[in-house]
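Hi R.,

Here's the chain you asked about this morning:
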Amino acid sequence: MYKHILVPTDGSKLSVKAIKTAVTLAKTLGAKLMGVYVIPPYVPPVYGEAVIYVPEVTPKRYKEITAREAKNALAAVEAEAKTAGIDCKTVSVTADQAWDGIVRTAHTKACDLIVMASHGRRGLSGLLLGSETTKVLTHSKTPVLVCR
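And here is the predicted structure, written out as tokens:
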């Protein structure tokens, strides 16, 4: 059945549910696990005439901050997998949109299932905030298991 499962994480409590589901499924199926954290690219601040001065985050500092966040989020995947005795690798990728980074990672790492969380937003909040899960479902050729 599934041999290589991708589990995206953003470090949130909701992601932990998807991580636990992915680890349980991987253990049951004897599959490998791949954790992914998507980092948005650095965007330099743009200042207008009436802007309040905010110290600029340099590209180097941004890279340090996001690398630390990725490491912390992916550590949860590694810890859960280690506890279950599952083969696990992790990767952080840079992408303008999280869904694109997830879909590209599933393709390039030859994952045959994506297990991810969903906030379950509907109606106006879903329309305004968007849903990374919906976008992954729409654009991915890899099957997706959604956890709530």
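One quick note: The longest strand covers residues 32-39.

Cheers,
M.
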